[in-house]
Predict the structure of FAD-binding domain-containing protein.
Amino acid sequence: MDPEVVVVGAGPTGLTAACSLRSAGVSVRVLDKADGPAVTSRALGLQPRGVEVLDRLGALGDLPQRGLAVRRVDVNVDGRPLASFPVGQLTRLHGPAALLISQAEIEGNLRKRLAELGGSVEWGKPVTDVGADPDGVTVTTGGEQIRTGWVIGADGAHSAIRKAMGIGFPGVPLIERFLLADVHAELDYSREGATSWLRGRKLLAAFPLPGADLWRVMAPAPDDLPDNPGPDEIVGHLGSRLAEDTGGSIKSVVWTSVFRIQRRLADTYRRGRVLLAGDAAHIHSPFGGQGMNTGMGDAENVAFKLALVISGRADTRLLDSYERERRPVASGVLQSTSGLTQILVGQGRASRLIRDKLAIPMLNNPWMQRRITDKASQLEVSYRSDSLAQRWLPGLQPGDRVPDRELLSADETVTRLYDALGPQWAVIGSPGLAAIARDRLGDVMALHGSGDSMLVRPDGHLAWKGSSAASLHTWLDSTLGRPALEPSA
C-alpha cells in the first residue's frame, strides 16, 4: 500500500516528523541513504525546546538521566579566565534544563518510539529522483518507485530532495574548515559544561561527553593543514593545542571530522507536495547548539499540520503557515550564531580587541546571562501575528508557547499538559468549547481552567483564546478552511 508520507532522512528532524505523523495515524515510510544508524555523537546540545519536543512525542525516556546537565561555559583569553557563564539552569520561561547528550542517543530514542508507533527506518535507500504532480509525488530509490501523497525532505545540508525540486539554498561560508574530534583525554577541567581558550586568532573548545574522560575538542583548521587532513593530522593539531592551552593530553580517539561552517537558508520550505525541514532548509554555525533543536521544531510544526490536511480536516493552505512560522525562526538562528562565530573567531585586530575587552567580559553580567540563556533555550519562540496590536500585548497570546503544567481533566484526573498534547490538541477551560474544537480537529482533550479558554496546539503553542463559541468557530474556519469531513455527531 502506498504511504501517505515519505520522510527522507533519519536524523533527529526526519525521525521527529515520522513519530509525529505516526502518532496521528498517518502511514509513513522513512528512507535514509546510510547503511545503518550513525554511532558518532555529531550534535551535542539538547536545548530546553528540544527536550520538550521529545517529551510531547513520548521519546524523551531516560535521556535526562544519561545526559550531562549543562552548568556553565568558561572562557579563557591569553591563558587567563575572563568569563564564566552559567547555562542550563531553569529559566524564567518555566521549561526543562538543557542537556549534553549525543545525537546518536537522541536518534536511538526516536527510532525506538517510531517502532512503538508501528514505523521503521529503511536504510541503504538513497533517493535518486523525485517527480511531483498535483495529485502526489513519485520517489525513486534504487530500482523502486514509491508513490506517495507528500514528501518531507529532512536529508541534510546536501539534500537530494531540495536539489530535485530546484529550491535555491543561498548563503556564504563563515569558516572554511573546522576540526573536531571526540577523544579520551587527560584534562583537568570541569565536566559541568564547555570550556574555551582564545589566543589571538586561535580558538580551542572542549565539551564533556557522557562516559569516562570523554571530551569533544574542536578548533579552526590552521592555514598550513592539508585540504583533506586525515585523522592523525586532525588529532595532532588538536592535541598540540590542548597541550599548549590546558596542559592536557589525548589518550585515544573515538571519532574525527572536518567540516565547513556555512550560513544558508532555503528560498522556500515548500514546493507543492514537497516540504523541507532541518538542515535541508537551513544550516548555520554550531556555536550556540541550535541546529538540531531548530530542525526538531520544524518537524513537529509541519507534521501536525500535514496530519490535519491528510485527514481531510484542513485544506492545503494550512501548510503555508509552516514556512510563515518556521522560516523566521531559522533566519534568527542564522543571524545569532553567525554573530557569535564572528565574535569568537575574530579575523582582525580590532574585532579581537572588541571580543577580549568588551564582548566576553559582558558574559559575566547577570542580565546578559539571563538574556542569552532564554534566547538559546528556544522557549521564547513565538508565532504571534505581525500586527503591532498583538505583538506587544501582555500575557499569553495566540502563537506563544504555553508552558507545561499540571491540570485537571474532565474526569478530575491530574494530567500534565504535555502528556495530553501530540497528536492531540487541548482546550484549557470550557468543555463546550472543547467539543466544538473536537468536531473540527479530532482528538482534543478538555482540561479545567479559569478565565478565557485556551486552545493549545499539539506543538505546545496557543492557537486561540476566548470565551465565545462564535469566535472559536470563526478561528477554525479561517485557519483550517472548509472541512472535508462531516462533523462528528
